[in-house]
Structures are given as structure tokens and as C-alpha cells.
Amino acid sequence: MTTTRPGPACAVWELTLACNLKCLHCGSTAGGRREAELSPAEALALCGDLKAAGCGGVALMGGEPLLRKDFPAIASKVRELGMELSVITNGTVRPEGIFELLKSLSPRAVAVSLDAADPALHDRIRGLPGAFAKASSFIEAALKAGLPVSVITTVHKLNIAELPKLRDIIKGRGIAWQVQTAGAEGGRFTRDLLLDQEEFYSVGMFVESCRRGYSPEELPVIGAHDLGYHSLLLKNVSLYEKWEGCQAGLSVAGIRSDGGVLGCLAVNDDRFIEGNVRREPFSSIWNRPGAFSYTRDRSAGEPGENCAGCGHSESCRGGCSEMSLMKTGRLHNDPYCFRAIEDRLFFKGPGGRIRKLGASLSPARGGGSFGGLGGIFSGRRRKTGGD
Length: 387
Ligand code: SF4
Ligand code: SF4
Fold this sequence. Notes:
Blueprint: E1 10-14, H1 40-52, E2 57-61, H2 71-80, E3 84-89, H3 98-105, E4 109-113, H4 119-126, H5 131-144, E5 149-155, H6 163-170, E6 176-181, H7 197-213, E7 221-223, E8 252-255, E9 260-262, E10 275-276, H8 282-287, H9 293-296, H10 313-316, H11 321-328, H12 338-347, H13 353-360, H14 375-378
Parallel strand pairs: 1-2, 1-8, 2-3, 3-4, 4-5, 5-6, 6-7
Antiparallel strand pairs: 8-9, 9-10
Helix pairs in contact: 1-2, 2-3
Bound molecules: iron/sulfur cluster (SF4) (2 copies).
One iron/sulfur cluster is lined by residues 225-226, 246-248, 252, 264, 266-267, 320-322.
């Protein structure tokens, strides 16, 4: 018998794979539309379907969602049905009347991607000359319209040194800042650009230092929810008070522009498609027994070597499914884990080292000093490829 479970708190919906940019780190290698993307009528029907499944909010992204001519109808339908609306855009496409429309819909967030404070570097990462200027102008106009603006920064080796400069252009403007790290699923991103574990940890230290050094009003910054787990030192990085494992298929759902349903769009792997809304309603896919077993079935899947023996593995289940698959080719084995990194870097060294690192994060140090790891953010630690 099928039991109805609570709907996803958030469905992240790739409205189209079409995109005017060619971002290096794009996990779905967006550019052209997918074959057979949902029609306007199918997209509106899906809104109703999501509501019927108990979905709390919808995040419209792409590709570039504002390239879809029926974006206003879909966004309006989401709100009409009483679901929260977020929009994630590259900020370089500005359909006429977009700010007025968004304002009328009271979105939860309008998120614009900004990957560097240096315009030339942002343009290079995003694959379009002038992208920085357009995104900056979009942000300004959205703020002026009174919209809740967020900036999303995706970090890899090319832009890790930009974080302090980005902080300085974001702070004090009423912009929420989400910092996340790049995966290597996309066809334009090479693995040598991925952060190593120490750099990954340093991004956590940077976010923590910002949260300790600035008030939430001055700089509302968070790390993505998969930015490290169970750290003994970095307690304020993510919005989650307690990490309880990958939320794909639990509180999060991902929908591709051709109607394919995944637990999370970051898991860019066809083996994890649970169904298609063209063939059955979203609610049937969501509630089907056995669906999303990699997160829902707590007894399925042994922890891999990176997580074996970890005291948190029962609730954590090996971290982010996407990171685990991308780095190790299997689930439940995320090597990018603050706790595991601390174990390796600090606890096996001489006693008291954690205390010293803790002191380097204090606001009195200006939120930008990282002791031995500081060079990463000043750009001195490593020369990145192609710079
Ligand atoms: S070692 Fe693995 S199971 Fe343990 S907290 Fe880290 S990611 Fe989770
Ligand atoms: S796959 Fe990673 S990004 Fe997606 S819900 Fe799981 S933890 Fe989050």
C-alpha cells in the first residue's frame, strides 16, 4: 500500500537547460535546451501537481530560467497556489518588467550568481564578456525594487582567493550571500580546478569568520547545506543547526526541464531519475514505495572507506550524495567532510592545535585572518591554472 509522505520543503526546478552563458562549473553543462522540455501547459500542470504533493516551495533555476517566455506564468502560478518562490538567475537576462513582476510575487529570494569581484575573472568563469557588469546591474535594480536579493558564489581553484574581495563588495547592502563549492559533473570543468580538502575546509573557515566578524544585518552569509559536517570548530557555517544527512528525496526534490524527477538536481546522473512527470504525477513518483531509497532507506548502503567507523555515519549516511558520487564513484562516502578533515589535520597532531585555530577566527582578527591557511585567500598559497 502506498503511504503518503510529507511533500518536499523545496522542489528545485530546472525550467530550461537553455542558457546564454557557458559557466565553467555548470554541473549540467547548460547551453542548449533539453530535448522535449515541458510545454507551458505541462509546466503549469506540474505546479498544481507539486502543490498536491504538499510541496512547500519551488526554486526556479536553469539553465537560465528567465529565458523561458512563460516564466511569468509559471512563477505566478507557484505563488497563486500558495507555495514559496525563489528564483536563481545568472543576472544577465532582463525581460521587460521582470522586477515589477517579481515584486508583485513576494519571492523568498532572488539569487544572482557572482563568482568573482574581479570583473574579468567573473566573465572568464561565466564565459561571457560583460557578464559581471550585467549581473551587478541586475543586483542593483533588484535591490532598488525592494526584492530580497541573494548572491551565490560557487568556489573552485580559480576564484577561492576572491572570497574576501567579494565579501567587501557584498557587505552592508542588504544582500544575503551563499557560498558553495563546485563539483565536477559538468563537461566544461576539469577536475584539477576542484578544491582540495584543505581548501574546502578553508572555505568553511572563511564563512565561519564572516559569521563571527559581522552581524547578520551587515553580512548575512551562509555556507551551502553540504559545506562540511559535524565540525568541532566550525559551528556556524550552514543554516542547518544539525546536519542530518543528504536531503535528496527527503525534504528536497529536483525536476529537470524534460520532467525527469531526481532527489536533487546536483546528482546529475540518469541512474537516479525516479520517474517523469509526463508519465505520472509528481505525487505518485514522490510517494512510490522504494523511491529515493539511497536516502530514505536508512539501512541501504554501507558507508564507504571515508566514513567507515565514523560515529556520525548513522545519521549522516556519508554526506552529500553528489560529492560522494563525484569524488569516489559511490554513495555514502563523501571525502569532503569537516569532521574527517579535522581528524586528519588536527587531532592527530600535537595537542591544543584546534584552540589556536579557534583564536584565529575571532572577530578581533577582522574575520579575515586564517593563520597558516590565510594565504589561500590572499592568493599567495597556490597559483591557479591559467591565471
Ligand atoms: S565521516 Fe562521513 S559519515 Fe562521518 S560525518 Fe563525515 S561525511 Fe558524515
Ligand atoms: S545531493 Fe548534496 S546538494 Fe543535493 S540534497 Fe544531497 S547533500 Fe544536498
